[in-house]
């Protein structure tokens, strides 16, 4: 955790103590009771904030520097109900593999960007740092890259580039000759890799709504601009084109 956060913590404690002292000295005979009440109320609030926010930051900072490297498979992703700066916190249930090859199950909490809510999915393999004293205490190693259940996308650059090039050719063909329609997004799945920065490679499961024809299910893959991720969440309506001879082939018309 950086110096600014520590300054904030220390400044908050000093401010609380000064406020309580001022109440005690100026409020007469009731000052002591009011001071104790303020101390309990604001002290409790500060402790809760510390447990939710600052303590995980301190723990993560320590383990990023001193933790033992390992890997983990995400088994479950659960919402904790905590949101900071509009970014949700999630709890990850992990199957950890340490440097000795031993496997065990534990959990950790991590903040997720609101524009990339699918950053962590069951089946993904993630690098972790493990507490040398308590192996159940782990954090995500943000310097180690992220793998999908199918392999290391960051190192298999050639295969992934080939996949993207082939996908782009198919999408270009459908864009030129396909039939336009609206579609409702039913499911958004991040495929475990970002392209040219933080632009996610995703798969969209769709209900395609052709004009004057029955609706049908479809899927579209592609890279979405980071700033547009919020527009491609379940329930959103988008424009697509689909292959007249193979309705399973769908491409997003406007990204």
Give a description of the structure.
With 255 residues, the protein is an alpha+beta fold. It folds into three domains: 3-65; 67-140, Beta Barrel (OB fold (Dihydrolipoamide Acetyltransferase, E2P)), CATH 2.40.50; 157-252, OB fold (Dihydrolipoamide Acetyltransferase, E2P), CATH 2.40.50. It contains three helices and ten strands. It has helices at 3-26, 31-66, 157-177, and strands at residues 68-84, 87-97, 103-111, 125-130, 138-140, 179-195, 199-209, 216-223, 237-242, 250-252. The strands form two sheets. A five-stranded antiparallel sheet has the order 3-2-1-4-5. The protein has a five-stranded antiparallel sheet with strand order 8-7-6-9-10. α1 packs antiparallel against α2. The longest helix has 36 residues, at 31-66.
Quickly describe the structure.
The protein is α+β, with helices and mostly antiparallel strands and 255 residues long. The protein has helices at residues 3-26, 31-66, 157-177, and strands spanning 68-84, 87-97, 103-111, 125-130, 138-140, 179-195, 199-209, 216-223, 237-242, 250-252. It is elongated, with a radius of gyration of 25 Å.
What are the key terms here?
alpha+beta, OB fold (Dihydrolipoamide Acetyltransferase, E2P), five-stranded antiparallel beta sheet, 10 strands, elongated
């Amino acid at each position: 955790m950086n110096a600014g956060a520590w300054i904030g913590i220390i400044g908050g404690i000093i401010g609380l103590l000064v406020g309580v002292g001022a109440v005690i000295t100026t409020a007469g005979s009731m000052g002591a009771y009011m001071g104790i009440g303020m101390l309990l109320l604001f002290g409790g609030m500060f402790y809760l904030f510390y447990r939710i926010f600052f303590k995980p930051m301190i723990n993560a900072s320590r383990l990023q520097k001193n933790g033992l490297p390992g890997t983990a498979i995400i088994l479950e992703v659960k919402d904790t109900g905590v949101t900071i700066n509009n970014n949700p916190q999630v709890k990850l249930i992990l199957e950890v593999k340490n440097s000795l090859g031993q496997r065990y199950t534990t959990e950790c909490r991590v903040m997720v960007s609101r524009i990339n809510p699918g950053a962590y999915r069951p089946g993904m393999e993630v690098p972790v740092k493990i507490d040398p004293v308590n192996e159940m205490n782990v954090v995500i190693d943000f310097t180690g890259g992220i793998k999908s259940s199918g392999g290391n996308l960051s190192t298999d650059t050639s295969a992934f580039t080939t996949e993207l090039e082939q996908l782009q050719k198919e999408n270009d063909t459908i864009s030129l000759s396909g039939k336009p329609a609206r579609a409702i997004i039913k499911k958004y799945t991040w495929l475990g890799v970002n392209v040219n920065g933080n632009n996610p490679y995703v798969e969209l499961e769709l209900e395609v709504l052709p004009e004057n024809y029955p609706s049908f299910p479809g899927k579209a893959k592609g890279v979405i601009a980071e700033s547009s991720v919020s527009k491609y969440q379940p329930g959103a309506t988008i424009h697509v084109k689909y292959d007249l001879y193979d309705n399973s082939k769908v491409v997003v018309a406007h990204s």
